[in-house]
Structure formats: structure tokens, C-alpha cells
Design a protein that fits this description.
alpha/beta, 8-stranded mixed β-sheet, 6-stranded mixed β-sheet, 8 helices, 16 strands, 25% helix
Length: 309
């Protein structure tokens, strides 16, 4: 019995509620498929179930799954977590799940900022640094190193004032240790303010760091709209540098955002018409990374490939 198969058995028994010890594919060259969702928060979690089931029906061989924050609408509401897990049962069975904390995981039942205690109890996270297990972590699989970062500074600074610095130290160390081809960041809040048509405070904190550490791909969420920005270096469009993609929503909470020149690909009329629910399928190998954005109905809205020699 291979280690990967054993992990899948554990996940199947736990309906995805078991986060495995940091596992690695059999070789650094192993290719794999990953399903990426964002903002699965719902009033009616049947919407989330519809998206999750559509994704695994189309890509049953996907081995990794992530939701890039705001899994539920209120992070302290147990009934929402029960509905979320029930809706995701088929998706999480036999797959490794990488949870990402969002701002809604940091809201109390009376909608005030709080520590994400319920989120942290739902998953068995790998160690990070000090007492920050679950707030951020790294994970190696196949040809990729994933760095799950936390940018809920507004919500958490009063409770964890050293979160940013401790995380940066950890991030630098983990990137320096990585021997994988692809370095991928998952973080909830996005880098762009569409109302002001400019990079935001999250960008100011993280983008110079991503430039320095040569991160290949950054996947974000939070704004409930799909935007492919292509590669950006030093806050400018570039033929080199980090590729930034914001994932659309997998839940029923609908937002509209303006279109900006920073966007290379958007859903048609994304500033005027609510987008359909969507998800990403990412195919990762030693020398290639192909990302596809699909609507819940299976229509391909965007597809591109990054290559390395």
C-alpha cells in the first residue's frame, strides 16, 4: 500500500476533516491535478454542493483540493460548518484538502472580529511557527510547493500583532528550503482595489516579497469574481515575474467589481452582470502548469499554461 493511497483512505474516513502530515508525491516530477475554489460561503449550501460536485464529475482524478478562504459565511456558526462539510462530502472524499483562512472565518456570531477558533478546530494542520498552526503553513506535493498565507491583518491584528512578521520569517525560510519546480501562494484577500483602480495595502505588503522570492503563481479570492492579471513585477505588467489570478465564487454571495487595465481575462460583462459560480482546475507537472477556469456548467472561460525549461 503506497503512502499516498493510505492518506486517501484516511481522508475518505474523515470526509476531508483530516489534514495529513506533510506528504509528498513519489518523485519530484510527479504531475497531478488540483481543484481550486474560493468563497464557498452560502445562505443555501446546496449551491456550494452543486459547484463541488460539478468539479469532481469533470475531474475525478484530481488529488488536491483547496478553498481560498471564506469557506462559510460566519466562521463561528457550527451549523454552517455542518452544512459545508455535508455539501463537500463527495469532493473531499479521497482527496487532500488544503484549507485557507478568510476574513469570514474571523467573525463572531455577532459579526465582530474574533480569533478563528472554530476553523482551527475543523482541520488538523501541519506545524507552522510558534503558536500559529493553521494561520499559515507550507505543503509540498509532486512538482509544487504551496505556501498558504494569511492576510487577515485587519481582523486579527488586535489579537495577534506579530502575525505579519512571524509569517514572513516562516515564508522566507520555507521558500529557501523548497526543491520543487513551482512555488505557489494561496491567500484569501486580493491585491487590487477596483473602486480605486490601484494596488491595495495587501499588495504593498506581499508583492515585493513575491518578486524577491520568485513566486510563480498567486491565487486569491475575496471579491467573488474571476480575474486573470497575467504576470506582474514591481507593480507593472511584465513578461516575467509572478502570475496573479483571482478566483471567482463557489457560493451564492454575488458581488460586482469594475473592470481594470490590470485584468487580462474576465468573465464577459463582469462589471455589470453577476458571474456564474466557477472553479479552477490546475494541472501541474515538472515543466508545465496549466490553469483552466470553468463555470459550474462546465464552460471554459480561461485557460493558459506556464512553462519552465
Amino acid at each position: 500500500m503506497t503512502r499516498r493511497f493510505f492518506i486517501k483512505i484516511l481522508l475518505g474516513l474523515g470526509l476531508g476533516n483530516f489534514f495529513p502530515a506533510p506528504a509528498k508525491a513519489e518523485t519530484l516530477q510527479d504531475s497531478f491535478k488540483m481543484l481550486v475554489f474560493a468563497d464557498s460561503q452560502c445562505v443555501d449550501y446546496n449551491v456550494w454542493k452543486k459547484v463541488a460536485d460539478a468539479a469532481i464529475e469533470k475531474f475525478p482524478d484530481a488529488e488536491l483540493v483547496t478553498v481560498i478562504g471564506d469557506l462559510v459565511d460566519n466562521g463561528q456558526a457550527d451549523y454552517q460548518w455542518r452544512e459545508w462539510f455535508a455539501a463537500a462530502e463527495n469532493l473531499l472524499r479521497d482527496r487532500i484538502f488544503l484549507p485557507v483562512m478568510g476574513n469570514h472565518e474571523c467573525y463572531s456570531l455577532d459579526w465582530k472580529f474574533c480569533l478563528p477558533t472554530v476553523f482551527l478546530k475543523r482541520f488538523n494542520f501541519p506545524p507552522s511557527e510558534k503558536n500559529f498552526d493553521g494561520y499559515f503553513y507550507s505543503f509540498d506535493f509532486g512538482a509544487a510547493s504551496f505556501f498558504v498565507l494569511n492576510n487577515q491583518f485587519e481582523e486579527l491584528n488586535n489579537f495577534l500583532p506579530d502575525l505579519q512578521q512571524v509569517q514572513e520569517n516562516f515564508f522566507r525560510r520555507e521558500v529557501s528550503k523548497s526543491n520543487r519546480t513551482w512555488k505557489i501562494v494561496l491567500m484569501h484577500k486580493d491585491i487590487f482595489d477596483y473602486a480605486e483602480n490601484k494596488f491595495n495595502d495587501i499588495a504593498e505588503i506581499f508583492m515585493p516579497l513575491f518578486d524577491e522570492l520568485k513566486i510563480d503563481l498567486v491565487l486569491t479570492g475575496h471579491l467573488h469574481t474571476y480575474r486573470n492579471r497575467g504576470k506582474i513585477f514591481d507593480f507593472k505588467k511584465s513578461d516575467t515575474g509572478t502570475c496573479y489570478v483571482m478566483c471567482g465564487r463557489a457560493g451564492d454571495q454575488k458581488y460586482l467589481e469594475n473592470i481594470s487595465e490590470v485584468d487580462e481575462v474576465t468573465f464577459p460583462n463582469a462589471d455589470k452582470i453577476f458571474e456564474p459560480e466557477s472553479f479552477l482546475e490546475v494541472d501541474i507537472g515538472k515543466n508545465f502548469l496549466t490553469l483552466t477556469c470553468l463555470s459550474v456548467g462546465g464552460e471554459i472561460f480561461d485557460k493558459f499554461t506556464l512553462k519552465k525549461v
